């Protein structure tokens, strides 16, 4: 029980040192029990509690028993922890048996509760509003100072009495009703009038609400706010407003009043109608709240000026929400603004139309003409003359179609324009015209009707924009699209930012994306895969931006995820000003060609390797096989003529055996070379633990390494794997370790370092180095891995080890490199591509 108790159980000797402590000490003090044994209790008691604690421990040793002793302890992390202790002296054991419990959270909660109670009491006692509390039986249990002042009753008299006892009968009934409502769980709010003992009439805004503890209503809280001054002020204002209302309602202009804080206090019927307001909902609201869009506008600025300067203002401005123009007169006073206004919308619209017309006529570079309700020209600007060649004197009184009709002008377009004469809505048309010099031009017409006061169109303003070049570009694009839509290649048209505007059916067949899916995206965003070489385009991008066409081959990705090789040709397109406007990109599927090239490259590689193997084989036959065969043949002929009793028979037979064994070695080497060649391409691979294979190779050569006195440091993380043949990987490490032992330096202890780095994109790199005798790289001339190549003739060997290392690495798709210095050592780097 002591082991699993959350309380700290301990024994303390006469000297105040801990004898036994359970593991709860870790929770309370942050120390394990074994750390406390033998240490004095004073090390863990708060300095301020130490004298009292020492005194009580002395009393306990004297036979007294103490319980619920609160002591502050110091935790291992320096924090103060509150605890309750109890203990008793055992004379038999000569020790105090004590038990302590951590009450820090409880102590903090109590402190917070006390602070909260003090804050609540201060708010309750000093609140300007009348506050009192009743229990569930309606008996007053607490009142504040404002209560005593309001009712003229001392606190002692109010407590333990019922509220109706110090209220008038009518008010007492309403209070009792509110009490019952609150006890039923509902909040009650109402206004009550009260006559004090001094004869003063007071009005209170009373709020009664239930007091709830753990879901149970235990009483009622009442808050009564004295609103007498507000009520009396309101009554006075109401009487004055009634008198003024009669006056203001008789005014024919719209009229309203606002306070300095923009609150609307009055508006007459005319203002209510003109501003589309409801008097009942609008009064009491801020004018800026009713018309928030006018904040900082003309109305706001003018009213603010009147309030700040005390001067009347007279101005005309547009009320945007209602589309009204108002003539406003505002008169400031200490109570705010008195505002008179009238609707002048029609006058202002006519004025604005004239201003717009003057502005258009004088400033625009486009052609402008004004026609009457029958379509005859009344006026043209200089832009019209520059555009068409016709001057004002030639155009006035003539209909535009008679003036500018050409051989190719569309009669249907002319008919639509005449058909819209007299209609109030603006519209837009495109029309081909003939200018004064016989040249054809495309014009875009923006037609705006001018309306009279009744809403009838009396004339038209026609703004002409020359779109001839745009039309030509559209024609060119249509031709280009027609050509592109009938080719089997994928065609993309992009804007100057390389965003797709159009693709043809060939593109859809090539990639699977239709026009809607492609438009708005960049070709690279849509088509590139993680394996796409983005540098191919980047290398030529500057030329393309400079206006030159470019071409390249790139690996892209179809919608379905399949890779496709394409030949890409991108040509820039320029507008009539010579500015680059878009690009045309033609893509041809060359996947089959690329696969053919890759297959040819693979076959060439196989052929190169086979030639290399053939050279090695020829070398072995011509150099290593020929000598033992010739020796064996010569010795066999010699034995044929030598008797068994001859002194030469036994030596000759021994030499013959050596030649045959040498021949067997060469044949086994040939078999090894041929087996590696035959297994290339269909070599079975698996996930091989690199460190495990190194350890296996090291164990095989454990005796030789011990005799050499060498050391192998393996800096390869456990679990690091590579896709490889386990047997080949073993052979690589075995041969490298065997060579390190065989060709070690006699001047120092052999040290071999093996490290490995691996990444998803770069693959696996194995670093193998030794501090052996090394060899001369210049003399080796790249033949370090050649079959039967030897650099240390004084050492026994056949020159087969490094050849096997290279052959096995390359059979698994890897590469091996070597660097060496005489007297320093040799380093091998083995590379395996990513899985």
UniProtKB/TrEMBL annotation:
EC code: 2.7.13.3
Stored Pfam families: HATPase_c, PAS_4, PAS_9
Catalytic activity of the protein: ATP + protein L-histidine = ADP + protein N-phospho-L-histidine
Domain Histidine kinase: 620-835
Keyword terms, alphabetized: Kinase, Phosphoprotein, Transferase
All copies of domain PAC, residue ranges: 427-479, 548-602
Name the record gives this protein: histidine kinase
PAS domain mapped to chain residues: 1-64, 116-186, 240-310, 353-397, 476-528
One Gene Ontology term of the molecular function aspect: phosphorelay sensor kinase activity
PANTHER family the UniProt entry points to: PAC DOMAIN-CONTAINING PROTEIN, PHYTOCHROME-LIKE PROTEIN CPH1
NCBIfam families reported for this sequence: sensory_box
The keyword Transferase belongs to this UniProt entry's keyword annotation: yes
